[in-house]
Amino acid sequence: MEFGSFVTRSTKLVSDLEELKKVSSTDISVLMSGESGTGKELLARMIHKVSGRKGSFVTLHCGTVNEALAEVELFGHEKGAFTDAVSERSGILELANEGTLFLDAIEEAPAGLQAMLLGVLQTGRYRRVAGEEDREIDVRIVSAMGDRDPGDRVRTDLIYRLSGFRVHLPPLRERPEDILLILDHLLAKENKSSTISPETQALLFTQMWPGNGWQIRHLVQHMLAKGDMEIGEETLATVLDPVNESSPEPARVGEMLGLAERELIIRALNEANGNKTEACRKLGISRRTLYRRIEKHGLLKDGESDPEV
Prior knowledge:
Blueprint: E1 2-3, E2 6-7, H1 11-24, E3 30-33, H2 40-51, E4 57-61, H3 70-75, E5 76-77, E6 89-90, H4 92-95, E7 100-104, H5 111-123, E8 125-126, E9 135-136, E10 140-145, H6 156-162, E11 165-168, H7 179-189, E12 195-196, H8 198-205, H9 213-226, E13 230-231, H10 233-237, H11 250-271, H12 276-283, H13 287-296
Parallel strand pairs: 3-10, 3-11, 4-7, 7-10, 12-13
Antiparallel strand pairs: 1-2, 5-6, 8-9
Helix pairs in contact: 7-9, 8-11, 11-12
């Protein structure tokens, strides 16, 4: 499934994204959770694009906001509001008017900023620093946080206001079926394709990918810089730090290898344009073995069966 530049084969995530597509064309607030690199900003930008709102997409990195300056950052100020205010300045809200405000890392927002955001969401109004009148605001709020449950780092009443629709983006280690899909998608955008051995593909599935999509992007950038589209263990070593990479739990290794086999078959069939004889050649297995594994992984099309049965 594709939603803009976001691609996935994860069954649960596909279902959630289908629902997200439906609400994207509305004004409902969206709250996403997931580790760094799982694609939260990609989806936020796509939500804005689908919404058709004529204003801008504006990002506020909540963790970088100084609480003492939060009011100026959010609301802006009038000329003369303070010593250095030699001219008026628009705040983040005004810049996002009639568009989308993406609140990134909302769990890192200082308490004062959270209170101000809540007030705006409750009233639909704000006032510039040193301003004399309230201003109406029409903005779609899309938020992101690293954890499903931020605990006491975010006000409960603010979470309620931000949670018109919630979606969690699992890390790549929980959806290894997306690893090759994302890799191929990024290379296709550069009109490139990769060459990768079955052994190396299997290795991809047993990595933990703590950087998620960012690590795959770095892998693609490395390949493009070298002009070498063949992925081997040396290439992987450029983006996978053996010191920081943890091994998957033993109970999950079998599951990951099963997913690796499934993705190898899908990739071979796609590269062979559905020609099973050619796919067998690429995989180095017999046609009968291919059909058995296709059946094992639920890849048989309706009415299709093993011709040798």
